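Quick illustration, no need to memorize.
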Amino acid sequence: MSEEEKRDVENLIMKLKDLITQKDPSVTGFNIGTNVGKSAGQTLFHAHIHLIPRRDGNTSNPRSGIRGVIPDKMSY
C-alpha cells in the first residue's frame, strides 16, 4: 500500500471505531488484524483489515489479542 493508502486506512479505522462505540457503548476496545504474506495465512494477496470490537469480559484472557476472538485459537 502507498503511504496515502495507509493514511486513508488509518483514518477509516478511526471513523469506524467512533461509529461503533457511539452505536454500542458496551464496546470498550478493538483488535485490528491483517495477514500479510502466505506464511502469515494470507491466501488472496490484497489489503484486508479486520476491525474487531471487544468488550470487557468477552474473553477470560484479553492478552491473547486477536486470537482471543476465537477461544480455541487463543493458545497457538
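The longest strand covers residues 29-33.
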